[in-house]
Amino acid sequence: MPNFYTDNEDLRFHLNHPLMKKIVDLKERNYRDKEEFDYAPHNFEDAMDSYDKVLEIVGDISGNIIAENAEEVDKEGPKVVNNEVIWAEGTKRNYDALKNAGLIGMTLPRKYNGLNFSLMPFTMTAEIVTRADASFVNIWGLQDCAETINEFASEEIKEKYLPLFNQGYSAAMALTEPDAGSDLQAVNLRGDIKATYDKDTDTWYLNGVKRFITNGDADLSLVLARTEEGTTDARGLSMFLYERKSKAVTVRRIENKLGIKGSPTCELVYKNAPAKLIGDRRMGLIKYVMSLMNGARLGIGAQGVGICEAAYREALDYAKERQQFGKPIIQFPAVYEMLTMMKVKTHASRSLLYETTRFTELYKLYDHIGKERKLTPEERKEAKQYQRLADIFTPLVKLFASEYANQNAYDAIQVLGGSGYMKDYPVERIYRDARITSIYEGTSQLQVVAAIRGVDNKGFLNQIREYGKVEINDDVDYLKHKLIKMTEDFETATGEVKEKGDREFADFHARRLVEMAGNIIMGYLLLIDSNRNDDYKKYAEIFIKRTFAENKEKLEYILHSNLKDINLFKQ
């Protein structure tokens, strides 16, 4: 099998983005670790070389181990034995390969046995691993929980638990309860999980049920629980760290899912489970889960892009080989149009993914630096700017990458025809795996609810105008003019919705407005990418022409629709 990093030039292109110099310099704090750790970089070039080499290792493991195990893992799946989740044999081999390569906890500081890597290469590993097996990335990617511990836990907790990740500890986020679903404020309102403090033992104890927990029964779990009696909102929720070796949690069952079958999704019963408070009481949802969600959205964005890439490559390979009417089917317009759009959607969502990753990393870096020293006024301004962008771009990338993953997986089966519907080909598994991406960590509809703030507060429009200031090569300037017209249409659409003054009308058209903004942003990103690589001109041209027409259609519908014409359920 090929190396899943070196066979994809787009990854190295995004890794070498101009903003990486700023990111790496901030991450390495002027490369101070070089005096204490012999593997720490001495300068920016040294750090980038390390990123490149590690990504090559991940690409090799993904192409030659994880991808090879994917079908076996899908068939075998995890099971519960003596109240313990046992991974499929292939999953164990995958995890051991990455653990033995020292790639668990890779973003953690070196003092906790991490590699102190930037979020950019970590997000790329999630994309690469997903391409090999979308179910395994749900286990591998949850090491991101370590970042939440590093960001908010006490030094005592960090020193005890963070070094365990490098030893191979797995992680989980135990947020959802049976009746609360995505409404995390409702946690424990129906008598599910709560936390109580025992003064005599100076210990918190968790009691209740969590459901739909990805990689449930992990070595370490971040658990959201209600600590404040009588509260009914987010201010009564706190975050806890639970360690599996306490053996105070019963695995009631592993869900029998449509896809991502290699990843255990569990229902868990906590019975006086001892846990450690992370950060401050009452901040579990308001601060800590919100921070987790930005990382989770990025993770699903990377998973979506990885699925896009896997589906496209499977369809492309088949179309080159499959003969019909005396020639390969890739020569038929009906087929090569699908493949072209699969390729363009993959590039567009990837550009959005890594732009969002840069925004997210920069605000988090400033937050960490602010705990070490006082930020300058300019740094505080930048931190706020990047956090605002991350807050609206993370739901945007989760929305588009997951929807494109589903579209590419659907089209891949169509290219393969009847063969694609059979389990003899990976696209059948890819199709099943793709479906969950637009559901978990917040459905596409909830991503719109989060992203619409960027429409209402003009966050998207302001960033679009910033992109518009970038000089573009003369030969594609006509595409920039199309984006300018798309921006005018977007402003017209938002103005029409605002003028109605009807909240229900605004909610109804929220997705159209968010998608219009996303189309413009991805168009600009591809166009800006073409300044560094001529190959992106063709991707930008195809994407902008298609979405120009798409945004026109959305505008027309907004201008001429009325709720009474389309709501069949209003009494």
Task: Tell me about this structure.
The chain is α+β, with helices and mostly antiparallel strands and 571 residues long. It has 4 domains: 1-169, Acyl-CoA dehydrogenase/oxidase, N-terminal domain (Butyryl-Coa Dehydrogenase, subunit A, domain 1, Orthogonal Bundle); 171-281, Butyryl-CoA Dehydrogenase, subunit A, domain 2 (Beta Barrel), CATH 2.40.110; 283-441, Butyryl-CoA Dehydrogenase, subunit A, domain 3, CATH 1.20.140; 458-566, Acyl-CoA dehydrogenase, C-terminal domain (Four Helix Bundle (Hemerythrin (Met), subunit A), Up-down Bundle). 58% of the residues lie in helices and 11% in strands. The strands form 3 sheets. Strands 3, 4, 5, 6, 7, 8 and 9 form a 7-stranded mixed beta sheet that branches. Strands 1-2 form a two-stranded antiparallel sheet. The protein has a two-stranded antiparallel sheet with strand order 10-11. A hairpin with a 4-residue loop joins strand 4 (194-198) and strand 5. Helix 5 (119-132) packs across helix 10 (284-321) and helix 17 (503-529) runs antiparallel to helix 18. The relative contact order is 0.08. Mean pLDDT is 95; it is low at 186-191.
